[in-house]
Amino acid sequence: MSPSSPAGSSSSSLSVDYTNVLLALPDGSIPSNHADAKSYTISSIGGYPTFPPLPNIPKEINCGICHQPIPLLTQVYCPLENGENDRVLYVFACARLKCQKRDGSVRAFRASKRNEEYVKDVEEKRKIAEAAAEAEREKARKNPFTLSSDAQPNGALFGSSQPLFGAATSSSPNPFASSAPVPAPQQSSSEAIPDVSKLSLSDAPSTSTTLGPPIPAYQPAQYLSTIEEYIPPAEDVDFESDSEIDGDEDMKATMLDDTWERMLPKHLDEVFQQFVRKLESSDGGQKQVLRYEFDGIPVPYSSASPITRKLFPGCEKPLKKDEELDLNELYRGKSSLNGIIPPCTLCGGERTFELQLVPYLISLLTPNTLSTTGEAADDKKKKQTEAERKKELEELAKKIKEGKRDDEVNEMEWGTIMVFACKRDCIGLTEEYVGVEWESSITI
Ligand SMILES: [Zn+2]
Ligand SMILES: [Zn+2]
């Protein structure tokens, strides 16, 4: 699962066109009886979540609106670079119509557990760095013109903008691949769900826990593999400039790929256009379902949504002629998201942006792949034609209008789901902050 290089580029190390973002793409289904289906070190979409041995593992995750168990969208194994923990993020969303577009129907959790192998690794790197720093000081003492050793602090292992080690490498680490030694997760059957009421904080289960039927799940679960994001230079991108199509909404629509067509609102806003371009122009990344960059900058979906206006204040203002919208410049979280994103509920520390889900995921996790048996849903239903599907949705819409069947599950209707998680990677299982941009919010 090494990050792939774009075709024709042999030396990727210094290309400015690579961003620091890792894109996750679906990579084949995980058989439900395979050990990977019950591992917390595997990144996947759909299926059931597996939690590492930690106290207070829930029996199910419930919707904040209807309080029913909700399916997993993704489990992402993402230990931090130079961190000491296994770190897993989970995102769940209610598929019921009545809960769509309501806060509380999408929830994210983080499980962080100390990994002795990583601890050893960090300790070794620290020793090497200390030895190097000592050698530097020795050199400095011999050279009266250099600064004193006091000017070279070497105490802060993490948290400085220039980490002591882990300096610019040719490629960013892949948090999804478990290249570092990871102890084989112990398996447990879904029947072995601990009784939460009997657990105390010091009372962690000795094995991992995989949730199971009758909780709904998108089946089959699918592996995620990652590539580094590569945006080819602008002149290679097949987009017409705005000036050529100014004022012609229809032409704007036709220049975009079919994938996006059904999502296009009447009035395109610049934020949405940038979102689409970023995803569409990514080399080999058109099928990205998830974007990962710890402490990075999310790509907002719409200037109309409250979370975007908080994170990128001013992004909704009309642009002057020849003015470009620079979202990175507007981003409030460059140093801290204090006051915008609430702190970690476990340790009180700051949260930062970590990952976001993008709409291609919706086309993979469709209502007809939802199952409560642990197996893939009926194949016959899966092969529904587009016309049949449309008819079914129309019938459903009619019933909803009449106030019936609002318990029905439906296709998800978000534009992006952003997850903000604890910067300190504190140990335990906790709910993290989600910022959801709903699909309708782009119609202004
Ligand atoms: Zn719900
Ligand atoms: Zn924390």
From TrEMBL:
Q: Which Pfam families match?
A: PDCD2_C
Q: Which organism is it from?
A: Kwoniella dejecticola CBS 10117
Where is this chain compositionally biased, Polar residues type? Answer: 199-211
InterPro entries membership: PDCD2_C
According to the UniProt entry, which residue ranges have a biased composition of type Low complexity?
Answer: 167-190
Instruction: Domain (Programmed cell death protein 2 C-terminal): give its ranges.
Output: 269-438
Q: Which key words are in the record? A: Coiled coil
Its protein name is: Pre-rRNA-processing protein TSR4
Q: Alphabetically, which GO biological process terms does the record hold? A: maturation of SSU-rRNA
Coiled-coil regions in this chain? Answer: 376-406
Q: Give the region (Disordered) as residue ranges.
A: 134-153, 158-217
Q: Which GO terms describe its cellular component?
A: cytoplasm
